[in-house]
Amino acid sequence: MRGKGLTMDVIVNAAATLVVEKGYNNFSVRELAQKLGCQAASLYNHIGSFDDVNREVGKLAAKRMNDELEAASMGKESDKALEALAHEYRHFAKNNYQLYQAIMGLPALDQNDSLRVGRESLLVMRKVVHQYKISEEDAVNFSRCLRGALHGFVSYEMAGYYTRKNVPIEGSFRFLIQGHIDWIHRLEQNEMEKMKK
Q1: Do residues 22 and 103 both lie within one domain?
Q2: For labeling, which of 61, 65, 145, 181 is most exposed (least CB within 10 Å)?
Q3: Which burial class, exposed, middle or buried, applies to 170 when counting CB atoms under 10 A from its CB (0-12, 13-18, 19+)?
Q4: Distance, C-alpha 15 to centroid of its chain
Q5: What is the C-alpha to C-alpha distance for residues 66 and 57, in angstroms, rounded to an integer?
Q6: What CATH code is carried by the domain that includes residue 72?
Q7: By CB neighbour count within 10 A (0-12 exposed, 13-18 middle, 19+ buried), where does 131 fall?
Q8: Model confidence pLDDT, tens digit, residues 142-194
Q9: Can you give the pTM of this predicted structure?
Q10: CA angle, 7 as apex, 5 and 12 as ends, to 5°?
Q11: Is pLDDT above 50 for 1?
Q12: Does one domain contain both 61 and 106?
């Protein structure tokens, strides 16, 4: 290629492939240039810094995850949608763990931009949560807590925890999902009681 045909999309897709192969934030500009068949200097005609590449990889990963969550929950309602979303979140994070790390790394790169990307990546989750009759504040709090719980579960799982043979991990994950389903139904009941007063 020798620098010809380089675009930001081409660079970011090559960087995303390297993230999968070598790990998030674990390759150099030289390696990226080598993958693209060009000189490192050619890359800087398209990017301001390596952080720009990491930021764009994070955005790409967030879009891919959002698309998968959308597909998993499409056509499902309330509890079934929430359950499908939770399973897909875990599936995506486990099977694309290095790209998932790129999503988690976004705030350190650009707080303002990452907030926008974070909101976009939560759109599907918020759509599912809004199927329940709860207040806007409860919807925000629930979405944050659900995402935090899913992230924490996957992070511990990928680090090698949850290995007790007598308590299967799949059962623990179902326990987490059911707990959140029970919780959001209690929030619905609370909201209905408020409306009656």
Answers
A1: no
A2: 145
A3: exposed
A4: 18
A5: 14
A6: 1.10.357.10
A7: middle
A8: 999 999 999 999 999 999 999 998 999 999 999 999 999 999 999 999 999 98
A9: 0.87
A10: 125
A11: no
A12: yes
Burial label for 34, CB within 10 Å (0-12, 13-18, 19+), is: middle
Q: Token digits for 2? A: 């020798």
Tokens of 149: 């719980």
CA distance 109 to 54: 8
Which residue in this structure is represented by tokens 């179902």? Answer: 174
Helix axes 29-36, 8-22, angle to 10 degrees: 110
C-alpha–C-alpha distance, residues 145 and 159, integer Å: 21
| Nearest CA-CA partner of 138 in 129, 125, 147 | 129
Amino acid at 13: N
- Give the range of the structural domain holding residue 113, as residue numbers without chain letter: 57-196
Regarding whether 64 and 152 lie in a shared domain, the answer is yes
* Residue whose C-alpha is closest to residue 75's, from 14, 12, 21, 128: 128
**Contact (Cβ atoms closer than 8 angstroms) between residue 180 and residue 149:** yes
What is the pLDDT at residue 27? 87
